[in-house]
UniProtKB/TrEMBL annotation:
InterPro entries: LSM_dom_sf, Sm_dom_euk/arc, U7_snRNA_Sm-like. This is Sm domain-containing protein. One of its GO terms (biological process) is mRNA 3'-end processing by stem-loop binding and cleavage. Residues 17-82 form the Sm domain. SUPFAM superfamilies: Sm-like ribonucleoproteins. It comes from Coccomyxa viridis. GO terms for molecular function: histone pre-mRNA DCP binding; U7 snRNA binding.
Length: 138
């Protein structure tokens, strides 16, 4: 069997990619100020900023506050807990395939746009002059 030297890009091996793989799950986030946020992970970015829906925020002392939307700044996160039934390797692999598919689709659309601009497909070149490229009869 032939061995390949294919490597996963560094961006796809980051902790933020793992957190993005948890989108849609109910998670618990421990914050640096000892507060605890709970909710469904709606979105995450490269800075580990999180958006939770159906959330609650429990400060160290005091009552929990329920809210429909909670933004958690990545720098304030201490720990992220996720359900024990979740298989992290499976979720990450699915997320990596989604990212790869999106990259391929983007590159394909860029390639198609470049071909249209060059006129490779037999179509007119895209220019700012609407009269350009039109055949004239004399």
């Amino acid at each position: 069997m032939k061995k390949t030297n294919w490597r996963v890009p560094a961006a796809d091996r980051s902790l933020s990619t793992f957190v993005e793989a948890l989108i849609g799950l109910k998670i618990v986030v421990e914050l640096n100020n000892d507060a605890i946020a709970r909710g469904v992970l709606e979105s995450s970015d490269g800075g580990m900023n999180l958006t939770l829906t159906e959330a609650s925020l429990q400060p160290l002392q005091g009552e929990a506050q329920s809210m429909t939307f909670l933004f958690v700044k990545g720098a304030s996160i201490r720990y992220i807990h996720f359900p024990s039934a979740v298989k992290p390797e499976t979720r990450v692999e699915v997320r990596r395939k989604q990212i790869l598919g999106a990259r391929r689709q983007h590159l394909s659309s860029l390639d198609q746009q470049q071909r249209l601009q060059k006129g490779v497909d037999g179509t007119l070149k895209s220019t700012s002059d609407p009269e350009a490229g039109m055949a004239t009869s004399e």
